[in-house]
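Recall the central idea of this unit: under ordinary conditions, the amino acid sequence of a chain determines the structure it adopts. In this exercise we apply that idea directly, starting from the sequence alone.
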Amino acid sequence: LIIIVLILFVPITLFILHGFEISRKGVEELAFVERRIFNISSDWKYIVFRGEDFQDSPPSKGWINTDLPKLIYSSGYRGAWFRKSLFIPRLNGSGRFYLFFYGVRYGCKVFVNNRHVFTHFSGFTPFKVDITSYVKQGDINEIYLCVLDWTSMLNRKINLSRLQPNERPVDRAKNSILYPIGSKYTYFGIWDDVELWIVPSIWVKDVFIKTFYRNFTIMVETVIENNYSKNIEVKVFNKILDGGKEVLTLPVRKILLRSGETVKVITHSVWNKPKLWSPWNPHLYNLSTEIVIESKVIDRRLTEFGFREFWVEDGSYYLNGIKIVLRAASTHYLDYDRENIVKTYYLLKNISVNSMRLHAQPWRRMWYRLADKIGILIIHESAVWCMGNNYRVDDPVFWKNFIKHLEGQILLHRNHPSIIIWSIENELLLTSGHRNRKSLNEVERNLAKLASIVKSLDPTRPVMFEGDFDPNGVADIINLHYPHEFPKHDQYPDTVFWLLNETILDSYPRIRWRWNRSKPLHIGEFLWTPFTSYDIPAAIFGEEAYKDPYKYYLKTKIYVWRYQIMGYRILRVNGFCPWCIFTSNRLSKPLCEV
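Accordingly, the structure predicted from this sequence is:
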């Protein structure tokens, strides 16, 4: 029996060992490309066309030069071609080419050298395209995008002829929108950067850094993808750099990567005395993540982050153990360059604003990166803005698309220390995002599911629903819009203390309510007070207001803002944002002075 076992076992053992040696030899001889990322947002061309469908091929003439971002106005049923001539270098090892699009709205098709390679339907979900099999290495390649406007997000064709005065194009799209489209939906195109990624076949696909002030620990989740043809054992190193100097090394992880596999690797460490990120000291570190095979670095990725923790406890906001009130500003998307973003953030800080809600859609990445560096607390908001009657809230397809939108944004932005709250949507329920009581209950259940999904992707930040109170009780923060408004309530200054008593809310959910302080209260918009009548300023300034109605309207807004802001501060409302200190896409000096 022993002889039989030896006869069977020894050859098998030798075969396995021989195979192992071949694998080791293969590892030693592996050559991988070095990670390189190129911003290719300059030197594009575009041309606009009319039509509701994608075109099969681009035109030969009529192109206009442009840099990105480039947005084009359309009330509906228009499209545009975008084109770039791009040199693709030769791979000097095993690797792949990707195009990474951070923002294209809305429906689009990507072509490389006249071959269709990818179709994407969304307006605010970043996406990458593997173009390795389509490019000519060491040569010029032609990249084309065919992009459609907001009507590509509908479930049916609508009639946009003869719009009435004050009628918006979207008003014709009742119960028709299947994707989040934001508030400035009439502009389409490529609205954020495009990059060319050259990465090795075994690469760091994603990094998520979690920092915890309450126990001074850091946790790093690294996603590694193996596009190589073999199973390979790798080590994952994570080192924290401060100005290029290594200040902390996390425990090394060793894993076996199978061919075609994507794996998440988790490591964590105590970190004594890190420099804390905050608005008054926005200190940033870099995390260097390396994939190593037998002492050879295969891939290295740098991720900027700040050590900070923001949380909700006992009905209050805390940042790094300090109770904090969010004195916020907000407006619709501003198409600013870097210089004007920096100027705006510093102006906000100078007027005692410590936070900004980037409202009604995701904004360009530059806004979040500069907030990290300058020290502005950011509320990130999805592209579901109002339009409760227009979104197909009874259609599972809408909710599926909504989930993909949130997933894309959270995975893209969750390492920004400036982002402290996820605003899942804005005023969907307030603007009648339900058809009846049964529909309301179903919409609230779906919103509650979204909150759960967001927290599964990022358990480190609270969530809220701007203007939609607390759907199904799942929000970490109660959020109200226009709950107690002038001129309905004009007994200033006494009326500013309305939160002391049970009251009927002027806006959604329009219930009799009193804040019990079990959750933070964030009044995301208040005292908009649109100038609909000359009587509005007269309610404060009497007959004098009729001599110069707009002048006195502005004075009225300043008057009621001053009192109500003081009232909310005295009552320790956790966050508040008067609507709005921006007028005509610029900060209003008189309103800023309030």
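The domain at 36-159+169-198 is CATH 2.60.120.260 (Jelly Rolls).
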